[in-house]
Amino acid sequence: MFRKLETRDIEALSAITGRDYVSVRDEIHPDYTHDEMTHYGCFDPELVIQPGCTEEVSQILAYANQEHLPVTTRGAGTGLCGGCVPIHGGIVMSTMRMNKILEIDEQTMNAVLQPGVLLMEIIEEAANHNLLYAPDPGEKSASVGGNVMTNAGGMRAVKYGVTRDYVRGLEVVLADGSVLTLGGKTSKNSSGYSLKDLIVGSEGTLAVVTKITMKLLPKPRAMTSLLIPFTTLKDALTLVPKIMRLPAVATTIEFMEKEVIQDAQDYLGKDFPNKEFNAYLIVSYSANTPEEMQAMIHDCAELALQEGAEDVFISDTEERQSSIWDARGAFLEAIKNSTTQMDECDVVVDIDKVADFCQFARDLSIQEDIRIRSFGHAGDGNLHIYVLKDALPEDEWQRKVARCMDALYAKAAAMKGQVSGEHGIGHAKRDYLKRSLDPVQIELMKRIKAAFDPNGILNPGKVIG
Fold it and tell me: How many domains does the chain contain in total?
């Protein structure tokens, strides 16, 4: 499909950024061969290049397009679906040198960022201006460009939405090197097709993002979390739609089970506030006055106790908040640390079907005699289901994980859910996406891809590739 890079290609690309920002063959760090899910394989790039500005990105893509060389754009590499790995070899283009917060505009409440800015950095910088960067994906060392490319969600999506809801403008480079500005700082735009929104979530298959304008919000003065234990996970999840109907919109509604909490405790070496029950909800609220917060807490706690909660623990200090959210933030790494290998299912279903899906996963674990862990965003129906290898022989693991994934995605489809709620498709979930969508939708996506990238050089083999 693509030719191999030659000496002339290395020389031409090195002339764009300087040789110090180009690695070839044995110089390439192994991290560039995979993302966080090594289960999906390692793929060797022929060259890694690190542009420092939009013009360099434009020149790299123009050359690659002319020479028909594949380009896989990569941020911090924290993805979970093989979206930033070079399955066709060729060029990996890292945007991590482009890592400046260019502007915090307090008047219009916008941030202008380069794609290599880390999530933790923009969260902190916005807070320094008494503003809130609302999207809250769990991996704070992810790059904002990667968040935009996967339309990352996170724990605050119940109240605030996902990354797409905050992207007001993009500067992008097309496959032929053309530079476009899509949107800007304005809060409304009905001017033709929304090309900006096509780029968000496209996983680097349509264009390369070089500048991002993100909406900020006023920072709430207080946040309080409720840790609500239940005898069963079904009881916990049955409460969620009722919490959603309360007058105050919760900032987060997360669910977890005792086993995952124990994994996090072992990983962090830090006790969770309470671990004697089988299942828990974490419900948090943000407010600007004590009276407003008290009313929110009262309504939720009263409802929870009426509906069978064993107790309601209020976390309204920094120490108490930390003990809960540090554990919640570590769930993925804790599960990963507890096993030898794993695969993940990132489906999303209606919030009133979350309990049934989790029970299905539990039954599947027993049926296949394999350990399965689950947690997720109860308030928006996005579940993270992990199938764990542990000590299984490789051949048995491959058979069982394939059957489990097929069953989980088939169940999500039967519930009219979606393949991915926030992690994306990459190359690992392509077949499940194709099975879940009408062929007409797939064909439309292919036409869109061809319009943006006629030679198919951008992140080939991903999403619908």
Answer: 4
* In a shared domain, residues 73 and 140: no
Q: What is the pLDDT of residues 371-397, one digit of tens each?
A: 999 999 999 999 999 999 999 999 999
Pairing of strands 47-49, 71-74: unpaired
In this structure, are 233 and 293 located in the same domain?
yes
Domain identity same for 105 and 207: yes
Would you say 44 and 89 are in contact if contact means Cβ atoms under 8 Å apart? yes
Question: Domain check: are 211 and 294 in the same one?
Answer: no
Domain containing 200 — which CATH number? 3.30.465.10
Give yes or no: residues 120 and 211 share one domain: yes
Residue 43: band (very low, low, confident or very high) from pLDDT cuts 50, 70, 90: very high
Tell me, yes or no, whether 211 and 233 share the same domain.
Answer: no
pLDDT for 273: 86
In a shared domain, residues 205 and 108:
yes
**At residue 318, does pLDDT exceed 90?**
no
1 has a pLDDT exceeding 90: no
Other C-beta atoms lying within 10 Å of the C-beta of residue 450: 11
Determine the pLDDT at residue 323. 87
Q: Is the pLDDT of residue 274 over 90?
A: no
Task: Indicate if the pLDDT at residue 166 is higher than 90.
Answer: yes
**Among 275, 295, 297, 280, CA closest to 228:** 280
Residue 393's CATH number? 3.30.70.2740
Same domain, 196 and 272: no
Q: Is residue 441 part of a domain?
A: no
- Mean pLDDT for 309-337 is 91
Domain harbouring 70, CATH code: 3.30.43.10
Domain that includes residue 259, residue range: 222-332
Mean pLDDT of the region 323-332: 90
What is the largest distance, in Å, between two alpha-carbon atoms of the chain? 72
Amino acid residing at 345: C
459, part of any domain: no
Residue closest to 273 by CA, chosen among 260, 261, 285, 256? 261
